[in-house]
Write a structure and sequence with these properties.
Order of helices and strands of chain A: HHHHHHHEEEHHHHEHHHHH
Radius of gyration of chain B: 19 Å
Distance between the termini of chain B: 55 Å
Strand content of chain A: under 5%
Number of strands of chain B: 2
Order of helices and strands of chain B: HHHHEEHHHHHHH
Structural class of chain A: mainly alpha
Oligomer: heterodimer
Strand content of chain B: under 5%
Shape of chain A: globular
Number of strands of chain A: 4
Largest sheet of chain B: 2 strands, antiparallel
Helix content of chain A: over 70%
Number of helices of chain B: 11
Largest sheet of chain A: 2 strands, antiparallel
Number of helices of chain A: 16
Radius of gyration of chain A: 21 Å
Largest interface: A-B, 57 and 62 residues
Shape of chain B: globular
Helix content of chain B: 55-70%
Distance between the termini of chain A: 46 Å
Structural class of chain B: mainly alpha
């Protein structure tokens, strides 16, 4: 067991809490850098997809997990990023510029959504973002001169300084670089006053306001940053598939993204990536399970949806902290070994606790 | 005359939205959360009705109450098994939970071999009939929807106004703690509210079935009922019906007068406008929080 005796605030917000963390994350980084030589092309593609969803998940995690603003239309931002990237690279704009534009345009759209979100919260915000998602999907389908409508649109490979990053390892490194940059950006944001303001808003808007936090500014900012990350993720997503169409950015995709952050563990940066790993690997696991299930169940078309639903219900009921929460519990158990108490992480019994205005 | 015709079909569609929204509002008032599973409950209700008629050979007038009762029991059961253990957690947990229930419902129905993936027609006795009133052509299916919604609304109104159960539900929805102290069994009441919401959803499903078809994805219409609930004011039962009617009529008119694409988004544009202009909805009460 490691004891860290904190005597200073700067110690509390340090990026790496102790040497062990530096060691393990460096190990992870080395493993990720060596991955293209160690695993097959298929798994490298899956890993790339995990990184892309991880970037999007980081954005949604900031919004939902740290600021407490739930967006049920996040796929729209993904779509804005993807279409911006498709149009710009189609016009020959170099990749660094086009991905910056994709992020910036998504952020601008995020601000537009964030503004009405200032007046509404909770359930109403969910419905506002849901509506926004539907409208954007319809715009993608109807604005044929730009988006190609329902027929979809082809996306060129990213080009940078005269290189074309199309083969697996090159694109993988690009995604890895952006994912690391996004993670560091979010981690640094969270240890800054802005990040603390976000968390304060999540915990109680009223008390945050009374502490002098400008609710409107920070909520809009949170929407903008989250949308920008979703836009960058969307741009990479478009390059990954080389083809985009409106139905890739529909309500089901939005719900998948939410499912990802909830299962990963709301309010943790690890959760975004754990959720992405879950979301990408789940179909593979189900496909493997199909072989030894009786064919009446295994071959049924609805199996995947039903399993998703059951897993989601199980997580909300038994592990509200998500995969990351489960890991924390395992780790704490090992650290405290003979002294772990049942219910160490249990929330206070809160029957009849209310969030309703009264 | 064209306009009147459009408005009538809008009203019929709006009644369906209103009935689903009624389920949202009932559950919102009781447990302070939004149930995303309402559309799937509707779909299940329609499938149970179909099963009663096609496999058990029940006549229509027996199949309908069977489906409603079955769904009410299902609602009570699912509240007991899934919702009650997590009461008091943040509202968003329950939203995710109901989304999960929706996935399970759709998935399980799709998994039924040879039935789940196909579209079915519900053999109702009033299929494909129409009355001619002057120059108007009144579709009997639509008239049944409007009539049933009106009757159901009256019944619910009477229940909440005069019956002990309805008054207890109102009390619990206004202040659970106070209701609990007054001896009202709040937990059991929540179960009953879920049962009621599921029964209303089943009615909506049975009414919608002859107009569209019965298939596993018919529950997605539930997403159109959110705008209805918001426009009416999320905590108001008459608001749900009125909101549904408004959404239905706007949708019907914009489908005819506006270019392609507006029909599907009209409901969402209306709800965004509503949230910007009057976030509490038409019938919503304005509350302030004391700290």
């Amino acid at each position: 067991m490691r004891f860290i005796f904190k005597t200073d605030y700067n110690q509390d917000i340090r990026l790496a809490k102790h040497g062990g963390q530096v060691f393990w994350y460096s190990g992870l980084l080395v493993a990720m850098l060596l991955a293209p030589w160690g695993i097959s092309e298929y798994w490298l593609a899956q890993l790339t997809l995990i990184l892309i969803y991880g970037i999007v998940g980081l954005g949604l995690m900031l919004l939902a997990g740290f600021t407490g603003q739930f967006s049920i239309g996040h796929a729209a931002f993904l779509g804005v990023g993807a279409y911006t990237e498709a149009v710009l690279t189609g016009a020959g704009v170099p990749f660094p510029l086009s991905i910056a534009a994709a992020g910036a345009l998504s952020a601008a759209v995020g601000v537009v959504v964030g503004l009405p979100a200032l007046r509404v919260k909770g359930v109403y915000l969910g419905i506002a973002t849901l509506s926004f998602g539907f409208i954007v999907e319809e715009v993608f389908a109807r604005w044929e001169s730009v988006t190609g409508g329902n027929a979809g649109k082809h996306v060129k490979s990213p080009e940078m300084f005269g290189w074309t990053l199309d083969s697996g390892p090159q694109f993988y490194f690009l995604c890895l670089l952006l994912a690391i940059a996004a993670t560091l950006a979010i981690l640094n944001l969270l240890r800054s006053p802005t990040g603390r303001a976000f968390v304060a808003i999540r915990d109680s808007e009223v008390s945050a306001q009374s502490m002098g936090i400008h609710l409107a500014r920070y909520k809009t900012m949170s929407f903008a940053i989250s949308a920008a990350l979703a836009g960058v993720g969307g741009a990479l997503y478009a390059h990954n598939l080389h083809f985009i169409s409106p139905e890739q950015f529909n309500i089901l995709q939005s719900i998948d993204l939410l499912l990802m952050v909830v299962i990963g563990g709301l309010g943790s940066v690890h959760g975004a990536f754990l959720g992405a790993i879950f979301l990408i690997s789940m179909p593979q696991v189900i496909a493997l399970a199909k072989d030894w299930l009786p064919s009446a169940i295994g071959q049924a078309p609805g199996l995947q949806g039903a399993v998703y639903g059951l897993v989601l219900i199980a997580f909300v009921m038994f592990e509200p902290l998500g995969l990351y929460g489960r890991w924390l519990k395992v780790r704490t158990y090992l650290q405290l070994f003979p002294f772990y108490r049942r219910g160490l992480f249990k929330r206070q019994k809160s029957f009849q606790k209310s969030e309703r205005l009264r | 005359m064209q306009l009147l015709q459009l408005i009538i079909s809008g009203i019929a569609q709006g009644c369906i939205y209103g009935l689903i929204a009624l389920g949202f509002v009932l559950i919102y008032k009781a447990t302070e959360t939004v149930s995303f599973v309402q559309g799937e409950l509707m779909m299940l209700g329609a499938f149970i009705g179909l099963a009663c008629m096609n496999f058990l050979g029940f006549p229509f007038w027996l199949a309908v109450p069977c489906a409603i009762v079955a769904m009410a029991l299902f609602g009570v059961l699912s509240e007991r098994v899934v919702i009650r253990p997590i009461l008091g957690q943040p509202a968003f947990s329950i939203v995710m939970l109901t989304i999960g229930m929706g996935y399970v419902g759709r998935g399980l129905i799709t998994m039924v071999p040879n039935i789940g993936t196909e579209t079915h027609t519900l053999p109702v006795p009033y299929k494909d009939q129409a009355w001619n009133v002057g120059a108007l052509v009144l579709n009997v299916e639509q008239m049944v929807v409007i009539g049933s919604t009106a009757v159901l609304s009256l019944l619910l109104y009477a229940m909440f106004k005069y019956s002990k159960l309805g008054i207890a539900m109102q009390a619990a929805s206004q202040n659970q703690l106070a209701a609990y102290y007054m001896g009202i069994p709040v937990k059991r009441l929540n179960g009953l509210v879920w049962g009621l919401a599921a029964a209303v959803a089943a009615i909506a499903g049975l009414l919608l079935a002859p107009i569209t078809f019965v298939h596993a994805n018919m529950g997605f219409i539930g997403l159109k009922a959110f705008p209805a609930a918001v426009v009416g004011g999320f905590g108001s039962l008459p608001g749900a019906i009125v909101g549904g009617l408004i959404i239905g009529i706007v949708e019907s008119l914009s489908g005819f007068y506006l270019p392609d694409g507006f029909k599907d988004t009209a409901a969402y544009i209306v709800v965004l406008l509503m949230l910007v202009v009057k976030p509490n909805g038409l019938f919503g009460e304005r509350l302030r929080k004391k700290v």
